[in-house]
């Protein structure tokens, strides 16, 4: 029986429904602090580059990059170092 017919017959009997898509992050390993720091540094570098490396914005670049990276990493993928 092909997959479409099988899914259709299972759905009509109430036994099962189509598999649910999983989150792209469901299988992620934790991101360790060194990798996170490197990602932030790289993002801060690109922010500075876009500004022509004007001085005086280093902290602003770092904090904005940190927020950007932290938003892109789901909390479940951040390694816990408090143990």
Keywords:
mainly alpha; disordered N terminus
Outline the structure in words.
The protein has helices at residues 3-13, 33-50, 58-72. The chain is mainly α and 83 residues long. The protein has one domain. The chain is elongated. The model is unreliable at 1-11 (pLDDT under 50).
Number of strands: 0
The proportion of strand residues reads under 5%
Shape category: elongated
Main beta sheet strand tally, sense and closure: none
Classify the helix fraction into a percent range.
Answer: 40-55%
**Cα end-to-end separation:** 51 Å
Q: How many structural domains?
A: 1
Catalogue the unreliable spans. Answer: 1-11
Class from helix and strand fractions: mainly alpha
In sequence order, what are the helices and strands, one letter per element? HHH
- The helix count comes to 3
What is the radius of gyration computed over CA atoms, rounded to a whole number of angstroms? 22 Å
Mean pLDDT: 75
SSE layout and pairings?
Layout: H1 3-13, H2 33-50, H3 58-72
Helix pairs in contact: 2-3
Give a brief description.
Helix content is 53%, strand content 0%. It has three helices and no strands.
């Amino acid at each position: 029986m092909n997959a479409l017919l099988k899914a259709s017959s299972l759905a009509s009997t109430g036994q099962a429904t189509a598999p649910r898509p999983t989150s792209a992050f469901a299988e992620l390993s934790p991101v360790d602090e060194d990798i996170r720091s490197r990602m932030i540094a790289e993002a801060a570098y690109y922010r500075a580059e876009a500004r022509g490396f004007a001085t005086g914005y280093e902290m602003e670049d770092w904090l904005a990059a940190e927020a950007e990276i932290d938003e892109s990493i789901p909390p479940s993928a951040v390694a816990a170092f408090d143990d």
